[in-house]
Amino acid sequence: FDVAGLYNHIGVTFDFPDSNVKSVKWLGNGPYRVWKNRMKGVTFGIWEKEYNNTVTGESWVYPELKGFYSNLFAADLIAVDGTLKIVVASEDLFLHLFTPGKPVQSTNVNTLGVFPDGQISILNAISPVGTKFSKAAEHGPQSQPNVLVSSSHADPLSGKFYLKFEPN
């Protein structure tokens, strides 16, 4: 089958409830989340964050935990009942950690981005984000949906990663 087309995000997603999450520690770009059209401002390193449910504009607990992270190599998601370990063996993959909430006072969805249905994802491509006044698609080529071309015309997307849950 051929999956050529336009996509907001491309990858694999999992269910992992955030209700028991205490913190995350990762090797990759941080400490801030990124979007397809907003990749600057992060630095490669080892980062650690306590769980927070910050909604931009409603709280001053920064940096936010929920969102997309670039250049992932490894991550430990520490939960009450154990640690989910993620090791990435491919370059240029993104980590999706849960989905940020919508600001109560928001009058549009331009700044929300589009996230996978699951709570944790390893992705080849992520969605762009708009501004308070305009949609993402109005901001040039980096703000367009991701294009997946026919497998007969290009190498298929791929990626390798490992998951291990270590109970307490």
Automatic annotation (TrEMBL):
<dbReference type="InterPro" id="IPR011013">
    <property type="entry name" value="Gal_mutarotase_sf_dom"/>
</dbReference>
<dbReference type="GO" id="GO:0030246">
    <property type="term" value="F:carbohydrate binding"/>
</dbReference>
<dbReference type="InterPro" id="IPR014718">
    <property type="entry name" value="GH-type_carb-bd"/>
</dbReference>
<dbReference type="GO" id="GO:0005975">
    <property type="term" value="P:carbohydrate metabolic process"/>
</dbReference>
<protein>
    <recommendedName>
        <fullName>Beta-galactosidase</fullName>
    </recommendedName>
</protein>
<dbReference type="GO" id="GO:0003824">
    <property type="term" value="F:catalytic activity"/>
</dbReference>
